[in-house]
Amino acid sequence: MAFVRDTTIGALEIGVLVATFLFGVTCAQVLRYFRDSTKDPRWVKILVAAVWFLDLSHAVASCHYLYTTTISQYGHPELLLVPPLSFDFIILINGLIGALEETWFIRRLYTFSKNVWISGLCGVLAFARFSFTMTITIISFQLLPLPVFIENWWWLTAGTVIIGAITDVSIVSSLCHYLWRWRRAECRRITKLIDRVILCAIETSFFTSLVAVLLLVCFLTMPTNFIWIGIYMLLPRVFANSLLFSLNFRESLSQAFGATLSNPEAGLTRRNSLYGIDSQPVVMNDIW
């Protein structure tokens, strides 16, 4: 691997700095969640706390990785070929945060659609991504040089990113499909609410998928530099903020459509003609 500062430690530094900024966004979203969502079940609050703790651990590991490569190993570019142990923990944390985020959205999909097959398929894809990531973690703890890892296991990394992107798109497209069918059967006020939810789903999926695609392209076309590693630093931040944004988005909907959401008799129901189930009131947590 030829040593070029801009595409090695430069790309890594930019990735860590942007990821650190996004960690600040994560902290702000966590504070907002615990301030506004006091009525959420305890397990949801534990989920948010776990995501924040994992994101904090990722920030610490990222800073250690950057410090090691730019300070401790200064003047020894050959040491860049073997990432420090902190990079292995970054991979592990990435897999854990991604699994929590995808599990949350799959649960939302099943709660809303009651479709076992689609939710199950998304669950299988999410489990495959998690399994691939854990396999990469185990391999990385062997402290293999990057060229050796890329030569022998590039397909595993590429497969993980591809499966992750497919999972995200499958979840959001399925959710939007059911929301759109439901939208056609509701009153005008409810259609505005559903439009907001659909837009939120597309936005969260867009950013996670965009980062995944950029990571895949850079890894396949430039595996010998650190640009893909810099982008990889952003992936868990995007996962965490997508989850927290969806949770906090409920409060915004409640403020904008409070009367409709808080009143089960306001006409917000699932229609059996669309879903094959009994008509029943739908509350905010069923939507998002």
TrEMBL record:
DUF6534 domain segment(s): 165-252
Domain of life: Eukaryota
Residue ranges of the TM segments: 12-34, 46-67, 79-100, 121-141, 153-176, 197-220, 226-247
Alphabetical UniProt keywords: Membrane, Transmembrane, Transmembrane helix
One Pfam family recorded for the sequence: DUF6534
InterPro entries registered for this protein in UniProt: DUF6534
Stored PANTHER family: CHROMOSOME 1, WHOLE GENOME SHOTGUN SEQUENCE, DUF6534 DOMAIN-CONTAINING PROTEIN
Protein's name according to its UniProt entry: DUF6534 domain-containing protein
